[in-house]
């Protein structure tokens, strides 16, 4: 074993030990499994405190430079810390859009002033960030965004509506994609990218109640909201390029995230544990041959996801269709989890009809909520149907639909 | 579930070389015209191609060097089998490889010394393991009884691969109430004892073999202490090789479908632009890729010793995933070719027929999932 590997293993063990010792007690409300479920002040403040505590302990932002609050360590250290957090099942890191998308973007493309101003407060969760890309009329067609930004003296005046804004009502800043020129030949060339303050007059974030019942998203209205012209990132017309760069971070196609720990993993092991004491026809669930067969199918699929992630890094094992695994990962994983969570509820018998808030619900209604929530993954970031189009066209070379 | 899943998957330069040369060889020796020409032939394979394969050392690739092989282990068989499936190249390779594994795992030292170098040199051997349609049967109907200094066999085996050309048979029998393996030479029974099956997959050759009345020396018994575990391991290795071959054919079937979707027009549009065809085709790709990941994982962890639980899981998962993927690919291959797909001329028939063959060899997907359930839940 190399010295670096030894150090890394030692570090991972250290983080695990710290997490074990400092894992917060059950707060008495259902903690979010993903960052898209933060729908109340109490959940927000609980997670804000937790992120701060983890930052102070030195386990997020490890790759970011020291002068901006980081530790200047190689990526492997952050991955090791993230692994340890996932392994210990601690609450997730709250400020995902700052830590994972906006932060790395500022770090890569921002000015020194921007870095000084934003980065450390992302790590401490003092400033929560949100993202304003999607619009009510333009879900999958991001390049067609119509929210306008009109230069007026030292300001831009913003008008329009963004939707599915996670943390819209709690955020200090938004990474905003808006149209500075409605008359370009290509729709993409009229877009610009802003690091926009949310605490200016004319910005209203209205919580959206989701199928889960909580309020993790907002619809965000801009009504002649004035933001300083200095908020423009890059130049006018470069918005699409910057947005695509942001998506690279969002999809973890490029490193530099202050953490990847933004959801609690849910595995077959958890499902089996959750239904350990469940019976069917008076017998333990795991005596039923059809249940057993279905569970094995999920085990085979879950294993293939992990194996494929490893294989994607070995080009010699990705012949015929070199981009197949990279482009299908999101589709495969999110659809797997949707079906697996749906099945988890079906295994609960009468308890499957209980929901968050009922004291008899298995694990507080975790699986019911997890299933509903999973639609954010099969829909967001390009629906499964769009993903299939992309794979069909770019991997198999099929004609456009 | 307390069992920790093994996710090992790695690849070295030597394996990369094997994979590359396997693909090139199979592609060069087995065009679709070659495959079709062999459909009606007696042996089902081209002797010149088998000879070339022997010259490359493939029959001995997983046989240790001490027995005249190359000693690269079972993992190296996976890319070979996958490439053969990819180009539907038929030879007695699978039969000979399984017979070699039987000897290697369950034979006595002198049996290994006698036979393994010959198999590495191209002797055609095969295994006779199946007594009925039931791959999951836990009893063996064929028997061996003592007759003085010799053993007298009785019973018929099904689906014995390449029995028409095999010179050596490894036969599972019940002897002294225990599962055993015994070696039989082709010359020890009349030709009439061998009856060729009419198979759904016309690229394959398999036979019903009646071993009744065959007498062999007792020295022809494989090591009795190892026979039970050897039979179990052979079933798993057979499943893995079938999975590898099926995954290759799933890729061939996918290509066949994609080519048609990119060239066929209806209503003035390429039919591949219709999502009703495009999306299931993407699903086929994804299922085939999942099968590949399971395969290469199995190839990574397999070894020459008795198979561990992790290896058993890997073989069973690979078989379940691969044959389901090929069933899906072959079925849609026919359907998406429309009227052409219904003809013998369309290559989709080769794929759908192979799919039916592969799913049944060494146990179907449910057979393997059932056993996986026991490993995980009991």
Per CATH, what is the topology of the domain at 227-377 in chain B? Butyryl-CoA Dehydrogenase, subunit A, domain 3
Overall pLDDT level of chain A: 94
CATH classification, class level of the largest domain in chain A: Mainly Alpha
* Head-to-tail CA distance between termini of chain A: 51 Å
What would you say this structure looks like, in words?
The complex is a heterodimer of chains A (401) and B (378). Chain A has 401 residues and is α+β, with helices and mostly antiparallel strands. Chain A has helices at residues 3-22, 41-57, 75-88, 96-109, 112-123, 239-250, 268-274, 289-311, 324-346, 366-379, 384-394, and strands at residues 129-132, 148-152, 155-166, 173-179, 191-197, 203-208, 217-228, 232-233, 279-280, 283-284. Chain A folds into three domains: 3-126, Acyl-CoA dehydrogenase/oxidase, N-terminal domain (Butyryl-Coa Dehydrogenase, subunit A, domain 1); 130-250, Beta Barrel (Butyryl-CoA Dehydrogenase, subunit A, domain 2); 268-394, Butyryl-CoA Dehydrogenase, subunit A, domain 3 (Up-down Bundle), CATH 1.20.140.10. In chain A, the strands form three sheets. In chain A, strands 1-4-5-8 form a four-stranded mixed beta sheet. In chain A, helix 4 packs across helix 6 (239-250), helix 9 runs antiparallel to helix 10 (366-379) and helix 9 (324-346) packs antiparallel against helix 11 (384-394). The N and C termini of chain A lie far apart (51 Å). The mean pLDDT of chain A is 94. Chain B has 378 residues and is of the alpha+beta class. Among the domains of chain B are: 126-225, Beta Barrel (Butyryl-CoA Dehydrogenase, subunit A, domain 2), CATH 2.40.110.10; 227-377, Butyryl-CoA Dehydrogenase, subunit A, domain 3 (Up-down Bundle), CATH 1.20.140. Chain B is built from twelve helices and eleven strands. In chain B, the strands form three sheets. In chain B, strands 1, 2, 3, 5, 6 and 9 form a six-stranded mixed beta sheet that branches. Chain B has a three-stranded antiparallel beta sheet with strand order 4-8-7, with no helix packed on it. In chain B, helix 5 runs antiparallel to helix 7 (224-263), helix 7 (224-263) packs antiparallel against helix 8 (275-301) and helix 8 (275-301) runs antiparallel to helix 9 (309-336). The N and C termini of chain B lie close together (9 Å). The model of chain B has no long low-confidence stretch (mean pLDDT 96). Chain A binds chain B through residues 268-269, 272-273, 286, 289, 292-293, 295-297, 299-301, 303-304, 306-308, 310-311, 314, 316-317, 319-321, 324-325, 328, 331-332, 385, 388-389, 391-392, 395-401, and chain B through 1, 5, 7, 9-11, 15-16, 19, 23, 251, 258, 261-262, 269-270, 272-275, 278-279, 281-283, 285-286, 289-294, 296-297, 317, 320-321, 366, 369-370, 372-373, 376-377.
